Here is the input.
Amino acid sequence: MLRIQKLFFVTILFVNYFNAFSQNKIVDTHPAIKDYGLKNYISYSRSIPYTSNTAWQLVCQMPTNCHFQPWIEIENAEGKTILLNSSNPLVQYLTKTESFVAKKGRQIYEAKNWISGEGAVYTIPAGATVLSVKYRETGYDTKFVGSFECNDNDYNILWKKGARTAYLCMRDWFYDCPDRERVGFWGDGTPELNQCFYAFDANAHKLCKELVLRPLDAKFYPGQQLEFLGEYGLWYYYLQTGDIQSIKTVYPSTKEFLFNTYKFGKKNQWFDWGKENKDNAIIEQCFMYIDLGTLKKMAKITEHLSDTILINAKMDSIKNSFNTRFWKGGFYKSEQVPEPDDRANAMAVNAGLADQTKWPAIFENVLNKKTFSSCFFDRWVFEALCSMGKEKDALIRMSTRYQTMIPASFTTLWEHYDRWWASRIDAFDEGSSLNHGWNPPVINLSQTIAGISPIEAGWKTFQVIPKEGFLQSLKVVVPSIKGNITVAINKTLHQYSLKLNVPSNTQSIVGIPKTAFKNLQTIRVNDRIIWKQHSLQNIKGVAYYGEDEHAILFTASAGNWQFIGEGLVDISTPKKAAKKIPAAIALDKKNWVATASVKDSLFLFSGDNIPIGVPAANAIDGDHWTGWRDMTHKQYPGQWLMVDMQQKQSFEKIELDNSWALWDSPKNYELTVSNDGLNWSKPIATGTGTLGITSIVFPKQLARYIRVTQKGIDPLYHWSIYELSVFRK
Here is the structure.
């Protein structure tokens, strides 16, 4: 019931918000939607054309998660009902399965409503012949322009999945997710707005402006609005666009919200899902302090200079009492929580309320140990670590916490780490979205790690001060409103190279990070020495700007520049870089047959009790959203699933993908093969399942049948195989 209650509460709030927004509309809320046309699926569970004397399902796969409308050409189906839907079960929260009654003869039908997912499911009646199927992709009219590449493929995958996730959450407004809710939360909207400026072209700025001009609503999770009304929302937008008119428009309502509307200590403020150790007393003080600092800057540029006296007084009241109230000698903590919260301590650093003398203790006692934050709030923990000079630890934290999403076959990022609902109950949350816009890798990597961000509004001046940590090469494109900015970094034992293009009518502050060196001797710009052990030379277009504890800084005018630091570079790493692995050859499963130790069944999905079929055939239909599950009991010895490949084939690897039902991995498995389905080999592989994808490698086999047997006991979770794939080299 928890999911139903949440959805009902959210729906009521959002209806109230949307009605208010419609009555006070400031900006056009009808963005352009691009029609990408009819496309062919990349795989089908059956060879087309196909007919059967019994009802059947055709499952088709798309290359990425997208908004789409299924299309079908069919005949011999007069008077019969055909069903079309996404293979993503969460779609059924919002969108009823579409159907049509076929006419006489050959007919083409296209679904009327868009849905989302990575696969389509057509339910076909007996006797009908499917001649062809396609899908029409639509989506917000913007292009992927930004990019991020480095020598560790884990972070490349996260950036690409993050950008795809952000795109899927754009349409009428910024969605939290396109499948289950499509609600315009300010919390989800904040990182989605941020990512637009690093991943997409300027068309995406229209949605950003909509969020900036959206009327505030004290009843609609005010904590989320508090997160948005400062550096991470309003000022972020202004620096990226230079749109001062929008800042002038929202200044009065922002001031009213911060001074009069927002009330500290109220329930249902909402700052994060994550785990329940939420130190909201500290978190809201930090965001209020950040927002007031932003309000002061807004006052100065919108001719409200007299307001700065009151703003300063309110900021001083927070700052002067903050350490007395919350500092406990080695960390910040209020009486609300039993132990220090990583979210609260990170925000104390980000807000500037924790001075640098406290950073070592905060790192050792909290940020290096606690993981209460969700993937939404981890963005601010990441930024705090990088501010503290702990970018290596930030990168490790990111790859560790995303460890199940990185290898997953899904092309987007999920609502919760490890599909684990950590608020109120600790349990697998089957109803959480697998495409949730609040994931921050795009901004963490392009903005913080590559160090590229505007300093003056509209990118008139911007900085490139990398904090690449143990990464040895980067290539980043940022689509600023002044033009694309490209940065390339390469590190060897004796050289640190940074190539940069500075667009026309801009200038850049470039930092060569001291932490990248054990011993820095010289810095060259376009092959001319500009810095040598504090001895400076003049170069046209580039000038020494100063240095701090992190970097040696230069200004660079418009043009192409290569900075090379020479000396002894630190290329040590605590993480082995993930490489791109060439894809093995997956055997074609179209005509295979799967059977299992239990009869085909279904389960009632989430609190809404949506019936989802989980027959054995789902395990080989090519779609990782559909699967086989043994719903008779939790895991017990002797469960099995068998595949008949219809002919002998050679193979040497099998993958059991249960990323959708992540915690249903087999406790123990045994793999056997056969040529007649009766006489089985000795086990060719045994082992323990891993979360998500269990890869099983063994000596080359030549067989027709494969059987996976579950040998362990798990009192909490069922056994699932959402896709079984077989490979040869």
